[in-house]
Amino acid sequence: MRLALQRASHLFPSPGHHLQAAWSKKITPPDYSARESLVRVSGSPPVQTAPANGLAARPPRSKAARIDLSPRLARRINRPMFRALAKRDLGYLDGFRLRGRDVTRLEGFSDAVFGFALTLLVVSLDVPRSYHDLINTMRGFPAFATCFWLLIIIWNSHYKFSRRFGLDDLTTRTLTCILLFVVLFFVYPLKFLFTFSFSGIIPIVGPGASPTPMTAAQASTLLIIYGLGFAAVYFALIALYLHAWRMREVLELNELEKLHTRHQIYRLLLLAGVGLLAAALACNLRTLRYSGFCYLLLFPILRLHTVVQKRSSRTLTAPAG
Hints:
The protein has 321 residues and is mostly helical. The chain is built from twelve helices and four strands; from the N terminus they run ααββααββαααααααα.
């Protein structure tokens, strides 16, 4: 009986028999290492190097077979935007290898909190019922636009950190939650300060619509709260980048990425330092008037830091000799 079943199995094989036989065969993938590598040096024609496996290399294309780009199209392709997009397709952006290309639950939670913070900045949730209400609502949009821009800058800093390092450990989650808490605390002083500031520039129409004036002590307290909140946001980002710097060996950062990480920490320290300086000036009524002007120092300071960072990057990436 057993012999008969064995003969029947040879005569009538199972449907998966051929698939199993095909799968057991060793399939050799095509060898792409035999292709030649083209090296272009300072505008010279491409130099064909010998392949590592000793196979015959493919002859270079003739000039007639090459694509002739017009100078205008070549200039458009060489723009920084197109170069950044090309690097991003390869997993690189601004000299950084993107280690966090997938959106994690931490990033989704952070985006939800930032969206809620932006909702709190809305000028008014009520529909205007008169012409004066409409005009007053429209006059609040400059303050809303300024607050919106500042929150987007903070969100973009956290976005860059997530894409560059892709960290999702306990320390990163804790520091991110601290950042989000400070952002939610920072929203209302931010909105009140800029709404009050623009109300002095843009007149408000309607009976009883003029803002209540503040005393010098109240203005000092408001500027201290704003300066400390401004510094706390960037100190939370500094803590995130310091954690990434401690993990530089695990993340396998190259020298250029280490340079960018250090300069990003320096940049955030400058931002936090300006906030602390503004809060310190607001503590004294004699220097209170200079507290708000401290934030104007950010433009030349950050511009100078960008120049120094680019010079350091060029020095690092310059060929030896």
